[in-house]
# Entry
Amino acid sequence: MEKLITDFLDILNHEQVLTGDDLKSRYHHIWHMDKPLKVKALLLPESTEQVSEIMKICHKNDQPVIVFGGLTNLVGSTETLERDVVISMERMTTIEAPDLQSRTITVEAGAILENVQQKVSDAGLLFPLNYGAKGSAQIGGAISTNAGGLQVIRYGMTRNLVLGLEVVLADGTILSSLKTIIKDNSAYDLKQLFVGSEGTLGIVTKAVLKLVEAPKSRVSAFVGINDFSKVVEFMRFVDQGLAGTLSSYELIWKTSFITLTKDPSVERSPLPYYYNYYILLEGLGSDQNVDQQRLEHLLEEALHQEMILDATLAYSQSELNWFWRIRENVDALVAVCQFDQHFDISLPIHSIGDTIASMTEQLEQVEGVTHVFPFGHVGDGNIHFIIGKTSEADTLRKRINAIVYEPIKSLGGSVSAEHGIGLHKKAYLHLCRTEAEIAVMIQIKKTLDPKNILNRGKVLDLN
Ligand SMILES: Cc1cc2nc3c(=O)[nH]c(=O)nc-3n(C[C@H](O)[C@H](O)[C@H](O)COP(=O)(O)OP(=O)(O)OC[C@H]3O[C@@H](n4cnc5c(N)ncnc54)[C@H](O)[C@@H]3O)c2cc1C
# Structure
């Protein structure tokens, strides 16, 4: 048996060290469960101290390590090579009782996002991080990707929801700051370095999360608009009118809306197919009747002013679920594509209409492109694209990438609004970060992980 494995067995028991045939049922991503994992070993630590001991061994042996959370990332950041050792956080799932006074909760990194939401909700509070992968994504994964999701315009990204963090560094050092305080200007905010670092700077083992009071009302509407300038005008109008309770403002382009609503899992479309843009908006407030009436009046006024052309409100929980099923039914878009390519770009909000129209026109002319499906969290400038295509050829992938990514630099956007860089977007990082920024990132990486063992080859290229 390789010395490295016997070293692991000195600190972990046999069930915590998987090698050989034990890896056959393991995979690197939830969408590739049919591809067995080929790595040196997969380790299942049960405490921060065990993660630290593992890293001391890996550091001493220059052993590359990849951390596995819920394996739902969309940028290839958990792709492995045979040389790698994997640390899976799945056994570190403790969720402490919420602290009702400080409105915080302390959780281990392997806790599933949905389980955290549930525990918080049982205590009458809300952890306002929400997205389609919540049933599999772990808190450590959400922190390491700085996940966004459906309520960013109101509550911010994961970064805004982390008050304390415990991290194991590449050499095994435990960096622990599990404070529950909101304000702390005592020198550098080190925890923020690890948020969004995609497992390249340290291993998150525990976090203190910020909670908010649970809303008592939830109002949603679908709205039809033809002109993109009205999408922006209406967003400001409804945000002002809802007095700070607007929590989602999702935009679906017509082609995407038709495919989403014609899917068999959706009974019918909430609006006719006359419009260029469909907005799903939601307000989380304190009084269902009052908030419903307020939204009704706002929609009537917006119709009267011809800011919007059509609107329909959800009047029951089942209608609310129906509306959100449409928005979250991304699988329906993927299902009509033979092969698919995903994007997650950020653009200044005023430029979204023209830029997406131009990209769509160019993409539709590319031989091999069959579908262009834009949709996204337009309230925070984040547009997702799913492109359907006839092959997985590298030339086609790069041609599509060029059309979507090249305008980003001059527009001041980002190649990744929320999914991260991983492997898939590494070659395009320079389009949204300056040379000086990338040089500082490399210095930070070299300082915290001088042997480049943490998620080697992801996010940055080191010489
Ligand atoms: C259906 C679907 C919908 C999605 N919707 C959204 C969305 O709306 N918004 C959004 O932002 N994202 C979305 N995502 C992608 C998002 O990045 C992931 O869902 C999630 O945040 C990653 O969590 P995970 O536990 O699966 O991490 P993984 O995929 O396992 O890992 C992601 C990265 O983090 C690292 N990592 C994982 N755990 C740790 C840890 N404890 N310490 C250090 N590094 C770690 C990994 O090495 C890897 O680099 C979606 C994904 C899917 C499949």
Observations:
- The mean pLDDT is 96.
- The first strand starts at residue 17 and ends at 18.
- The CA atoms of residues 241 and 297 lie 9 Å apart.
- The chain is about 30% helix and 20% strand.
